[in-house]
Structure formats: structure tokens, C-alpha cells
Amino acid sequence: MRQFILRTLLIVSGALAIAACQTETPPVATTPVTTPTTVPTAIPTTTPSIQNDAANFNEALYLIGNPDVADLIKQGKYKSGLEHFTAVGKTTKKTDGEDYETFYTGTSGNDTVQGLGYGKHAHFVGINLEVVPDRKTPFPLRPQSLGKGEIDILIGNKGGGGNEFLLGSFITPVNPKSEAFYVGKGSEDYARIQNFTESKDAVILAGDLKQYKFESKEGNFQISTTDGDLIAIVEGINQLKVGEVNKEFGVFTMK
Asked: Looking at the domain assignment, is residue 65 inside a domain?
């Protein structure tokens, strides 16, 4: 199974073996009896700010996830990571046989975050991930906000799958705690995920499975905390199954 952002962090840190992490195979998430408070079932009338695709592209994270690109830029072959991806990264693979990874991020406000429409290994997050200057760690990442009060629309690339939607922060040396995004405003802050391909795409949630409840409603899959605080709505999906649990980074995946 593709490791997505978890694999990226391990590659960057030089720890290529996923087996080094504590992994479990938990049961399929089931529909709870309780339901969240009033949950929106349509795109909100207050439209989040729509950034152009290139503006969503996170240059710094692209260079962290694909370190060979930084060397090519230093050699003068490309002016930026975005130029590299649009020229060759979208169709070729890295020397290790993996696809080039792209990262599309939002802000501390309402956003519509979408990719460039191509590429097979894309990550989407409604907030921005900050690269903290720290020579002691190879992946000094932390969220600039936790999405409280935000309504973000995350639009995956259509086609071959490989979209990953990050719904919480993961543990790094500069971010010691994993936390769920969009907590604190009930159904007034959440992520709406579109273009999700079941079994190929994934969502990443922070913390423990017991913190969440899941519900299929009107053809969509809803993720909430056990207190009924809405986290995300995955459009067009009735059920997701729990996949990899990564205790080192404090997150787990659902596909």
C-alpha cells in the first residue's frame, strides 16, 4: 500500500523501512448510533476564496518531498519546483521508481484548494504547513493553524488516484503533538473533499481512532469527533476503511 505522506517523511529522514514504525490493522470503521449536530449537505453559500492552481502548489514542500529537484535547480536546469513538475515531474518517475509528489496547501482562512489536474501522488491540506528553519531535523514541518473556524474545499486530481487529504497535524521534531483540524466550531468548520477515488485515495486523521465517529449520510461520508464536531465530508463515498496506523507520527489513514 502506498505510504503517501508518511512514506515521504520517512524517505526524507533517511528511514526507508516502514516496518520500523508501530503498525496495527484496526477494524473497519462502522456507522455510530449518534449523529452530529446540524450538518451541511451542500456546498456552503459563503464561498471560500478560490486560489489558482499554481498558487496552491507548495514549492517548499515539493523540494522536501523530492530532494533531487533541489539539486537540478542548483544546476540551473529548472528555475523552480513548479517548473520542474509541469515540465517533467507530472509524467516521469524518480530514480527510486516512485512518482513525484506534489503538495497543495491553503491558508488560515476559507480556501478552495485544488491541484494542477495531473500527477499521481498529490497531497491536499486546507491550512498551510510551515517549514521551520531547524538544522537538527530533516523535515521541520508544523501547521500554521488548525483550521478552527475554516470551511475548506479540497479538490483532488481526477484520474489515476493517489490523492491524499490531510485532516490533522502529524508529529515532527518541531510539532510534538498530532491534532485534528477543524475542531471547535461544530458544523461551522470542516473540510469538504471532492474527486475522491475509493481504494486509491486516502484521508489522514490525527490521533486515535476512538476520537472519531463516522457516518454515511445522503451519499457522502462524514467524519466527526465523538462529541459531534464535524471534521470533514467526503463527497460521493458511503464508507471508508481504516488502513495504516502510524504511532510514530500520531496519525492513521482511511481509504
From this structure: yes
